[in-house]
């Protein structure tokens, strides 16, 4: 049976240290590193998922840095994005408040058709939970967001959130061209080694 491939731009947003890069590393390479260095600038990678109907969805993933002083650079990563995963840490109430700020920004400035998923990471630290499932799920329902919880460390729920997004993305449009930051087309094959990240937002890279 022939397969139809669709390509979508996905951006990860959230406060520093909530586990964005660890989620992507688990999704793309099924790996976890307890001692990962902070993201520098932003990392670009790709991963594909095959749905039940044999449709192939290719994600072009922009994993953004989380430090506040680099927030102004975020629009060039979420511009033209088809979907966004906004990550918070279930052990840090403040990270959910930060996630809500990102979501409001996406709702104001991103493509109106963007699919937004709110993701509570670090369920392996259940004993330290500060954000209840009920609180986060209620907020997601009120804002019309997808919602789930994950553990990048154990892998729990990680593939599920990306597959759920893939299922929700429209398949009745022609495959989109490869789009990088700001809609530019990246040259060459996407790098998937998160241990060797390259700044993409200028010479003064951030640690976040």
Automatic annotation (TrEMBL):
Keywords: Cell membrane, GTP-binding, Lipoprotein, Membrane, Nucleotide-binding, Prenylation, Protein transport, Transport. It is a lipid-anchor. Its main location: membrane. InterPro entries: P-loop_NTPase, Small_GTP-bd, Small_GTPase. SMART domains: RAB, RAN, RAS, RHO. GO terms for biological process: protein transport; vesicle organization; vesicle-mediated transport. It is found in: Cell membrane. CDD domains: Rab5_related (cd01860). Residues 173-208 are annotated as: Disordered. Pfam families: Ras (PF00071). NCBIfam families: small_GTP. This is GTP-binding protein RAB5.
